[in-house]
């Protein structure tokens, strides 16, 4: 809390009025920033205790501005457990968001498709999630100021927002899949047997982020929506080696649809 408060005090010295809506931009999805009428861009390196981005395709700044008439905070670049950060670091920015008054959050990510009906470039609304990460951001003494010891997670994503997202996709003519996101530790990719396992337990898409963030914001009572861009087939139909560069390139392209959808939802 002390660390979060130092970051909050710094941000208060930079920003007069904070927005209530935030967006986390996943791998290759920084293009949404171009749509924001930017009031202030603050590099993570200037914010006390903020972690440092180490993954290609992730920017490293907080952007305050206006997206289609809505005041937003965009987190341009996120932190993953596999980078070596503690879970407390991974969710640090979200706790700072809570303290500056963010009420609702759209989380985006790049993910591998497990569902065989999905195609590369599809968008998937995350209706539910499974944590296969070895850790959880709420382990340890509970911070009562953030939320309860045992937060309910039976509806991790806001039902009203899910409905709005589906309607927006229909209006825009954007194909929007729905499904369950599985969060793994990474950074290694999955073996074929692991993919089969992920399918059997009910996953539609797989990635290495989002789950800790959703747990932290559910704990704090923020409204959350999650959207994955399916950047690759987890088992390619035509043999093809996974590269993060392909993930970023595909996310960049499909990101345009995502931007339209997010603008409409907000
Ligand atoms: O989830 P985001 O941050 O979008 O990134 C996804 O893309 C990377 C792998 O290419 C992993 O970090 C995975 O989690
Ligand atoms: N674990 C995992 N993360 C991803 N991020 C983007 N694609 C993938 C994938 O296929 N597997």
UniProtKB/TrEMBL annotation:
Q: What is its EC number?
A: 2.4.2.1
A GO CC term assigned to this protein in UniProt: cytoplasm
Pfam entry (one): PNP_UDP_1
Residues that bind a purine D-ribonucleoside, according to the entry? 190, 232
Q: Which GO terms of type biological process are on file?
A: nucleoside metabolic process
The parts of the chain that form a coiled coil are none
Under InterPro entries, the record lists:
Nucleoside_phosphorylase_d, Nucleoside_phosphorylase_sf, Pur_Nuc_Pase_Ino/Guo-sp, Purine_phosphorylase, Purine_phosphorylase-2_CS
CDD domains assigned: PNP-EcPNPII_like (cd09009)
Question: Which keywords does this chain's UniProt record carry?
Answer: Glycosyltransferase, Transferase
Binding of phosphate, residues: 27, 58, 78-80, 110, 209
The Nucleoside phosphorylase domain, residue ranges? 22-266
Q: Name one GO molecular function term.
A: purine-nucleoside phosphorylase activity
Q: In which pathway does it act?
A: Purine metabolism; purine nucleoside salvage
Q: Which NCBIfam families match?
A: PNPH (TIGR01700), PNPH-PUNA-XAPA (TIGR01697), PRK08202.1 (NF006054)
Q: Could you tell me which PANTHER family the record lists for this protein? A: METHYLTHIOADENOSINE/PURINE NUCLEOSIDE PHOSPHORYLASE, PURINE NUCLEOSIDE PHOSPHORYLASE-RELATED
> Which family, according to the similarity comment?
Belongs to the PNP/MTAP phosphorylase family.
Q: What does this protein do?
A: The purine nucleoside phosphorylases catalyze the phosphorolytic breakdown of the N-glycosidic bond in the beta-(deoxy)ribonucleoside molecules, with the formation of the corresponding free purine bases and pentose-1-phosphate.
Quaternary structure note = Homotrimer.
The identity of this protein, by name, is: Purine nucleoside phosphorylase
């Amino acid at each position: 809390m002390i660390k979060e408060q130092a970051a909050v005090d710094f941000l208060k010295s930079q920003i007069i009025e904070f927005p209530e809506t935030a967006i986390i931009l996943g791998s290759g999805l920084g293009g949404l920033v171009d749509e924001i009428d930017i009031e202030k861009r603050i590099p993570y390196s200037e914010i006390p205790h903020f972690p440092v981005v180490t993954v290609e395709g992730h920017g490293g700044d907080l952007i305050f501005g206006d997206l289609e008439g809505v005041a937003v905070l965009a987190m341009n670049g996120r932190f993953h457990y596999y980078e070596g950060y503690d879970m407390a670091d991974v969710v640090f920015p979200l706790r700072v968001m809570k303290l500056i008054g963010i009420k609702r959050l759209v989380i985006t990510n790049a993910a591998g498709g497990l569902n065989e009906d999905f195609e590369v470039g599809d968008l998937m609304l995350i209706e539910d999630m499974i944590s296969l990460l070895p850790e959880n951001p709420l382990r340890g003494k509970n911070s009562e100021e953030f939320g309860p010891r045992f937060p309910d997670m039976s509806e991790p994503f806001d039902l009203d927002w899910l409905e709005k997202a589906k309607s927006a996709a229909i209006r825009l003519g954007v194909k929007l899949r729905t499904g369950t996101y599985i969060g793994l530790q990474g950074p290694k990719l999955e073996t074929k047997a692991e993919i089969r396992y992920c399918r059997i337990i009910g996953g539609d898409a797989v990635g290495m982020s989002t789950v800790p963030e959703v747990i932290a914001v559910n704990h704090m009572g923020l409204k959350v929506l999650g959207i994955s861009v399916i950047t690759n087939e987890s088992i390619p139909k035509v043999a093809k080696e996974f590269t993060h560069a392909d993930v970023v390139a595909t996310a960049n392209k499909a990101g345009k649809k995502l931007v339209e959808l997010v603008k409409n939802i907000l």
